[in-house]
Design goal:
Strand content: 35-45%
Shape: elongated
Number of strands: 7
Mean pLDDT: 84
CATH class: Alpha Beta
Distance between the termini: 52 Å
Length: about 130
């Protein structure tokens, strides 16, 4: 049985990136959710670290497919904040989803060709020193 679990773990890693499942903070603690909005406090399922969402989504995309991301941003009616070259063949794109469901936007972007990573961004916290 132990060997089968190891092979299952290896197979799941080779299958490609999984979509992260999130829990949202409620009055009852953290509960699994299928909708996340700007300002929600969330964490990935199984994690103890939580963060407040900023409403921004960070996308890594192959430069050859960047125009598809830009077209989708227009169709989703979200705001392009920043687009920079990370290397000669990869761009980092930052999008502000405003009042849209962040998970819907994230899943749409993940389905595009050439997209290698899509992450929800945390709200920056000012700390007294």
């Amino acid at each position: 049985m132990k060997l089968n679990l190891k092979w299952l773990a290896v197979a799941s890693l080779l299958a490609g990136p999984a979509h992260a499942a999130y829990e949202i903070q409620t009055t009852k603690g953290f509960e699994q959710t299928s909708h996340i909005y700007t300002g929600d406090t969330i964490r990935e399922v199984g994690s103890i670290n939580s963060f407040q969402t900023s409403g921004e989504i960070i996308v890594s995309v192959e430069s050859a497919h960047a125009s598809e991301v830009f077209d989708t941003v227009k169709q989703l009616d979200v705001q392009l904040v920043l687009s920079i070259d990370r290397s000669s063949d990869t761009k980092m794109v930052v999008i502000n989803a405003g009042d849209k469901d962040l998970l819907d936007v994230q899943q749409t972007l993940q389905s595009l060709p050439g997209v290698t990573q899509v992450s929800l961004s945390a709200k920056q916290q000012d700390r007294a020193q």
